[in-house]
Amino acid sequence: MRKSLLMVGAGLSGAVLARQLAEAGHDVTVLDTRSHVGGNCHTQRDPETGVLVHVYGPHIFHTDDAEVWDYINRFGRIRPYTHRVKTTSGGRVYTLPMNLHSINQFFDAAMPPAEARAFVAAKAVTLPYTPRNFEEQALSMLGHELYEAFFKGYTAKQWGCEPTELPAAILKRLPLRFTYDDNYFFHTYQGMPEDGYTPIIAAMLDHPCISLSLNTQFDRPLAQGFDHVFYSGPLDSWFGQDAGALGYRTLDFARLVHDGDYQGCAVMNYADAEIPYTRVTEHKYFAPWEHHARSVCYRETSRACGPGDIPYYPIRLAKDKALLTDYIARAHCETGVTFVGRLGTYRYLDMDVTIREALDCAALYLESLAHDRPMPAFAVAP
Ligand SMILES: Cc1cc2nc3c(=O)[nH]c(=O)nc-3n(C[C@H](O)[C@H](O)[C@H](O)COP(=O)(O)OP(=O)(O)OC[C@H]3O[C@@H](n4cnc5c(N)ncnc54)[C@H](O)[C@@H]3O)c2cc1C
């Protein structure tokens, strides 16, 4: 039976879900408070330089999921792109992720892989227990010099707290390579949309069964009359943040325009604590097939997210997890709504994971309908 569905949010989660459900024959109304589709993946031309800008921070598409890769390629041309990141520390430039080149540069050496591995292992701090936090994890992998030069200041700036307050698990994900491979990602597929992400997401939403309302803030009464709501807004906002706000980091972007090249690469991190910003993105490097005489860069600073700020990175420390548990319990008591995406589930999700989860969520909804089963509040546990 044809259903009338409401999708809150026209980001990647909302667009993929809307598309899948519209293709299955349902009517989907999509609304977003912003004036554009694409959520945080939104791209637009900078009016002064003509450069395609990743408005809410740099976005590189990378995945091992062949179905997700095929899916995004259905809606626009993805061109080959390999992401490489540099970092400035102590007035010198190194390549990231930490690899044989950065190690040799830092120690002014020319060690082959096995020698470098043994050298770093000798620097590592031996703890009589499993590392309890980020700092201990880093020291037990890298030792003091590399940790202090590359991770300590950057991490404190990014998260607004001491690295000793952060879980060890954050660092376990950062690769340490004993080769000269400086490709930032390990994934099989990597690329950049030729015309940016926004036209791709607009193409997903371009379907006769989808109607789109931009500049429209969702409020609970708007859900009336719909058979089901998929909500990709912040989980705590569904409840009016009545138990408190889940903690996020927000970002400030200072725009700077430059003649020619500003920094010679897409992303330059700044590892030193004394430099207040974390990185500078030079957007024209995301479209190496384009040529621009001028360049636009965004200098990025991280700070605590307050009322009215854009929530970027969920903090998920103990205080937030306790609050999250409370909101999850209450979400399970709701009917007719499923919380999706990075904000609806209070998790950091890469774009490929976002698409995968939206595809699976749409499949779960169709299966629930077919078997007359209730759709759960979460398709993926937050
Ligand atoms: C700085 C940064 C860099 C990133 N870089 C990468 C990268 O390089 N590669 C990668 O794979 N991923 C990256 N990501 C992750 C990527 O941004 C997410 O995977 C993606 O945005 C998730 O899509 P979403 O639809 O779940 O959320 P969003 O993009 O946040 O979309 C949610 C939408 O809901 C709307 N909304 C919220 N509340 C309401 C309401 N009450 N009423 C109406 N509308 C509402 C919002 O306006 C927004 O448009 C990055 C994320 C950040 C923060």
From TrEMBL:
Q: Does the keyword Heme apply?
A: no
Q: Which SUPFAM superfamilies match?
A: FAD-linked reductases, C-terminal domain, Nucleotide-binding domain
The source's domain of life comes to Bacteria
Q: Where is the UDP-galactopyranose mutase C-terminal domain?
A: 149-348
Assigned keywords, A-Z: Signal
GO MF annotations for this entry?
flavin adenine dinucleotide binding; UDP-galactopyranose mutase activity
- Record InterPro entries: UDP-GalPyranose_mutase_C (IPR015899)
Transmembrane spans: none
Q: Give GO cellular component annotations, separated by semicolons.
A: cytosol
Q: According to the UniProt entry, where is the signal peptide?
A: 1-18
Q: What is this protein called?
A: UDP-galactopyranose mutase
Q: Which gene encodes it?
A: glf
